[in-house]
Amino acid sequence: MLRVxxxxxxxxxxxxxxxxxLHRLMIAETISSGHAGNVQDALKVLKxxxxxxxxxxIAWNIFDTLPKMGFEILxxxxxxxxxxxxxxxxxxxxxxxxxxxxxxxxxxISHLITNDQDFHRVPWLTCWQP
Length: 130
Fold this sequence. Notes:
By secondary structure, this protein is mainly alpha-helical. It is built from seven helices and four strands, in the order H-E-H-H-H-H-E-H-H-E-E. The chain has two domains: 1-74, no CATH class; 76-130, no CATH class. The chain has helices spanning 2-5, 15-32, 39-48, 51-55, 58-69, 80-91, 95-106; strands at 11-14, 71-74, 111-113, 126-128. The strands form two sheets. Strands 1-2 form a two-stranded parallel sheet.
């Protein structure tokens, strides 16, 4: 992150990753604020009391901070669904991972920061662990 902030490298966050991050942060904050005791309860609480979502701060702060740090948010493109299907089947990837690979392929991204070992099956990606 420091290299992105300094402008040394370009940081790109695919929209699918940002959505997953925000989803998990919303659940975690709902639990940590005492509204729920576990993930299932948090999902139920957020569905039944959507006004809680407006009062969350961690998820929104992260979303607001990423562009300020120099990260570009990569929106979904046309054709990603077909690529996702192809990469999922060809490389035995789960759908969400295949969508990430599809975005990387479409935008000629060859480096990925991840702790997910499944991405090592992608021959043209260099994986970096945080």
